[in-house]
Specification:
By secondary structure, the chain is α+β, with helices and mostly antiparallel strands. The chain has one domain: Sandwich (Jelly Rolls), CATH 2.60.120.620. 16% of the residues lie in helices and 23% in strands. The chain contains four helices and 13 strands. The strands form three sheets. A seven-stranded antiparallel β-sheet has the order 1-10-7-12-4-3-2. α2 runs antiparallel to α3. The radius of gyration is 17 Å and the shape is globular. The mean pLDDT is 97. The protein binds 2-oxoglutaric acid (AKG). 2-oxoglutaric acid (AKG) binds next to β4, β7, β11 and β12.
Length: 262
């Protein structure tokens, strides 16, 4: 799929765009992969529903090597070419997959956050594709703070279930913004999504989501890619995903036996 200059410019300016039908022909594979993942979580599988809230919000990541449908999409869909065009990168490395499942009626919102600070990746050439396999009305869809990927300081990463700080060095980060309390300061982007549409967003775009008020599931696969300028950066604690024993050092390119060029 060719991406227009307007789409690339919007991605650079706003940090996120919707790409209709990017994964439509992969919907059945993605559904199979997500369903398998929900019933066979990895050791990273997490329940994020807070006490007293109705419904379920489950997430899990780094499963592409054991879920062939995910590997197939990562290697054979248009994701690689679109990622290269949006990032302006010759080469594309796959970083990881992430499943995010909200049951019908799940009351749990996804806290506002940037993915970047949870990761050990530094660089401007980054993109995630948020790919729902169920219809998602605008109220339950991903929300992104426009142009937040250009903020000069990173937002405090927190633990989704408890709200505690993810790292100890809070002073390195700015407080988590609340666009609902300050809509004049923070403009948000949000789209209604059909199965197979994707939202492409930068690792540093601040995003979140409300609960799933519909009476259908909200099953999503996020696929994350990095480009030529991505380098390993040492964080002050264990990252998410942690990739134990990766043995990379500050400034190195991500090891391509774990993060393949595609
Ligand atoms: O699906 C959601 O609620 C959040 C998605 C997200 O945080 C991500 O894909 O990085």
């Amino acid at each position: 799929m060719n991406i227009s200059k307007e789409q690339i410019d919007s991605y650079k300016k706003d940090g996120a765009i919707k790409i209709p039908s990017l994964f439509t022909k992969w919907i059945n594979d993605i559904k199979e992969g997500i369903n398998f993942n929900i019933y066979n979580p990895s050791l990273y599988g997490a329940e994020n529903t807070k006490k007293g809230q109705k419904g379920r919000f489950f997430d899990d990541y780094c499963n592409w090597q054991r879920i062939p449908q995910f590997e197939n999409i990562i290697k054979n869909s248009d994701a690689r070419n679109v990622a290269a065009q949006l990032m302006g990168s010759m080469n594309v490395q796959f970083f990881h997959d992430h499943v995010l499942y909200k049951s019908a009626g799940s009351e749990t919102s996804t806290p506002w956050h940037q993915d970047g600070p949870y990761y050990f990746v530094k660089g401007n050439m980054t993109v995630s594709f948020w790919i729902p396999v169920d219809y998602v009305p605008i109220e339950s869809s991903l929300r992104i703070i426009k142009a937040s990927h250009k903020w000069s300081r990173e937002v405090t990463p927190t633990k989704w279930l408890t709200g505690e700080d993810f790292y100890k060095n809070k002073k390195d980060y700015i407080p988590v913004p609340d666009p609902d309390k300050n809509p004049t300061k923070y403009k948000t982007l949000q789209w209604e999504m059909n199965p197979g549409d994707a939202i492409a967003f930068h690792f540093n775009a601040v995003h979140g989501a409300r609960g799933n008020k519909t009476n259908t599931k909200r099953r999503v696969l996020s696929l994350r890619f990095v480009g030529d300028d991505a380098r390993y950066i040492e964080r002050s604690g264990k990252t998410s995903p942690p990739f134990p024993n990766h043995n990379m050092r500050d400034g190195q390119k991500l090891r391509d036996d774990w993060f393949p060029f595609i």
